[in-house]
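Page header: ASSEMBLY MODEL / three components / 1203 residues total.
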Amino acid sequence: MPESPIALPGQERFVAAVEETPLADTGSFDDTGSPENQWQEAWKQLRSNWLFWVSAAILSVVTIVVCFPQLFTDIDPTYADLSRSLDGPSKGHIAGFDKQGYDVFARTIYGARASVLVGLFATLVVTLPGVLLGAFAGFYGGITDTLVSRIADIFFAIPLLLGALVGISVINNLWPNRGYWASIFTVVFALAAFGWPQVVRIARGSVLEVKNLEFVNAARAIGKTRRANLWGHVVPNSMSAVIVLATVSLGVYIVAEATLSFLGLGLPPGVVSWGNDLAAAQVQVRSGIRLGVMFWPATALAITSLGFILLGDAISDALDSKSRNRE
Amino acid sequence: MNPTPLLQVTDLQVAFSQEKIEVQAVRGASLTIYPGQTVAIVGESGSGKSTTAHAIIGLLPGTGRVTGGSILFDGQEIANADKKKILAVRGSEIGLVPQDPMSNLNPLIRVGKQIAEALEVNGVATGKEADRRVVELLEEAGLPDAARRAQQYPHEFSGGMRQRALIAMGLAARPKLLIADEPTSALDVTVQKQILDHLDRLTDELGVAVLLITHDLGLAAERADHLVVMYKGQVVESGPALEILQDPQHPYSKRLIASAPSLASQRLLAQNRTHIREAAQEVAEETADEVAAAGSEFGRGKETIIEVKNLTKVFTIPGGAPWDKNEFTAVDDISFKLRRGTTMAIVGESGSGKSTVANMVLDLLKPTSGVVEFDGVDVSTLKGKHQQLAFRRQMQPVFQNPYASLDPQYSIFRSVEEPLRTHAIGSKSEREAKVRELLDKVSLPWSVARRYPSELSGGQRQRVAVARALALEPEAVILDEAVSALDVLVQAQILKLLADLQAELGLSYLFITHDLAVVRQIADEVLVMEKGKMVERGSVDSVFVNPEQEYTRRLLDAIPGGTIELSS
Amino acid sequence: MWWYLGRRVLQAIPVLLGSTLLIYAMVFAIPGDPIAALFGDKPVSATVKAQLESQYNLDKPFIVQWLLFLGNALHGDFGMTYSGRPVSEVLAEVIPVTFKLAVMALIIEAFFGIIAGFYAGLKRGKLFDSTMLIVSLLVIAVPIFVFGFVMQLIFGVKLGIAPIVVGSDPSIPDLIVPALVLGLVSFAYVLRLTRTSVVDNLTGDHVRTARAKGLSDGQVNRRHVLRNSLIPVVTYLGADLGALMAGAIVTEGIFNINGVGNLAFQAVRKGETATIVSVVTVMVFIYIVMSLLVDLLYAWLDPRIRYA
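Prediction written out in full:
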């Protein structure tokens, strides 16, 4: 214990006036405003991000186009007039005509439905079983984990595009001339078959992190069963990463559908879709004439897919800042 | 003759901008340090003590900036100084020993090279000369086998060794001032003492002034000449260390001193303890009789609520080769009895196996061998959902981390109600009434029920965790480092709450902690663990006054401020 | 270390077996009559047909075909294409081309991605950072073949500084534009990954300690931020080589490059079992080898990782 010498200048005894340094009641808490759980907080964060509003605007327009294409054009996208093949824009036909004489603008509007549906269903078909398997593998561990992880590895090792190509060509051979929905679901399942392992990996990783947190142990100690714990505590708290992945996947699958169609193994030619129109337009682009034929569907597709990817990015930021605030 | 001050901070203001709103972190802090002196800033989390330190070396994180006041170092203004000026001061004039030794060394670079860097950029030495000097510096910081150690990576060092490396780094260019920001709070107490002793000696020899940032009043008083107490960004009191400790003026300092568990004044509390124990034992006996009369499988334990016999846990760590299995004995042959209505503390440093014991007692982890008996029943023989649930009702845990012990997606109401719902107790309105009563017991207003954990402070969350643990009216509560993560004042409040509840409800506590100072306030008996083994067991008074084992003695000696006499 | 390697190789075997079996089963489900398809409209005599079927093992159950394929593949015999060339010979021809293309794409994406990502991370929230954010999202949102055509049009058709299509045995300059196209999406991912990693590291404690030692911003960034930030990026790049080779289908189609992607695409259209399965096997093999290499590289970059 050092001796205290006579105070040097600047080190004299100082006591602040109590009025200027009031003591806060440690038990008090801010009871203003409505209660917010982490989703509500993330939502607040999201609302303050301009990128979110950009994506929300894009996706609202896309939704209306998908549901009510007839609001945007009176022209039948399946009516071809060969005499107007590759004509430029004209009154009532702002995007001109493609090789077959279809109206490019009408096809772009009507093409939204197939592309967005493929993205939407592929994401759903991948996410639901992916989360389920990932949660089981991560939570129960042991043989369940080994089995799920190894099978996921097998599917993961096969490149998505290559696997989907093979899958679609198999279905094309087995079941040619299917209807609209069957065609869409062929592409959906081909993409999903090789896309699910990624969801499993992400979900499993999050579950592994959450399952050892103290509140899960506390719930075990009150006698909650393992299953009740899994669905009541572990899965809801593991969803952030999955939600972000799913949103981004929507955009990525829309792009993947177009790529498959470009290779001639996506949706059959009869289906009006951006991918098919892009595939058909490649001849013109190669020769450098009437770039508009590709420009319209390409732009529509890019904006739609960008809408989902931006949304995923914004959600990821919002959820992230949440976890940063927590500690 | 007055020497000139080395550092003079006057009316310092620091603000962080959050989404266009300025948040004041430091409001008008002033302090003075003379050459060779040790000055300590003491405060709880959020007091602005670390922010003040970082402002001095111009390393405020994120959007932080100095918005007012001045920082004179050696007569030069360095607040908001340009890059060149501040670079000239950093390292060579002012050194920093940061808080967490685990994260403050670059994991990818050899320790020696990281220290050599400090020599090179400050123009002290380069090349071979620097390498030689690094070894000297590490030796000086008390690191044995320094030449070999310099060639190693940080992950090959223990926490204490890393802290020594950081001290060597901070002193490498022989600065005039060393800022030590909670230099030992991440370390075990015995290591903490060694390192602080060494740092004291070294800075004395070199004549380096030290600005010590700490939350521990006892530690500050023991090490510093001059104390600065900060609270919510303001300096509430400053002056000679001993004077403040013995005669605090500001209500905050008074409270802080009264709450500090490490200070000797707390011995008075021991008498209080006897009253609580007596009251608790009385209630507990009645409860035990009720349980036995109700024909439950429990109730045969009589005086003893929990008995642990020869508990051992061996973890198997897979080695390189498939047949290579390293066995690690986390808990080695531990036995004890927890008497009804009393508190038993298990004390140990990190790696002692104390939390593993807690998890086995809670039946969250299966022991390798040994028996846990709860109220006369071997826990491992419980069969079926009914018996399991009956056991769970009687014993509840409160865990350490107030940030992780509540599900962030559950409202407080739902969290506290969850145990009742799981055991299908009462109707909806009865459960609501029960939650109301529980929140009231832990002194929380009913309005918190609709809130979420992230909206509460750490202390409030811990109160909720206690309320939840009490929902099933258990006989025993396992407190696993339940107050360790809390600030001193809040910690004192929770400890008092726990003691009151014990007396009122006749609870038995198993209190797991690394902090011997707290044990004295809450426990009747104590069991000291080291590396999985029991070192010593006995009543709190006998262990504290007459420790039989060398290890226990070292633990007791390491409590900072334990020897300071307070007039009261 | 050696045990770790051994275990990893053992773990890889079921993946390799499982994925070939999976593809084999899928391809086997194609009904059709490959022999008839091969001869087009010409009639095929029953004896010739039977002979061909037994030559290509088409008359055996698929598990047997698969096992035969695996057995032969161990000696480097991947079967025959329907045009009568050994698959191994065709593979030996196309793999170097695609490999060259993929490595070039990898170099391009790594170089630009790391530099842009590093700078964006240092200037977080500034104009460059926001621009790069939008650019990277846009690159992911636009199908790669659209970029392919645009670049082909600009560099090949309009400017005439690059060949429009690339023939067999292309030279490195020939492949620059295709490699740019192929590496574009991964460039976006590398950029984002580097940026995130730099941002994380910049706020790290060890970086603050380095500053406290008196290091200037430049020294801190070079010595303490860059290397630490690159670890996750290197992991990504390693795994990406396999993905690039498989993803070359589109790029090779646009620029008419005679590589693995084109081979796979043609084989899928024709239902050429042996070729499809061989290509997938090679791809999976590359993927497994690369992930093993990445693990070892990881241990070399990060002294904390030791595979005991």
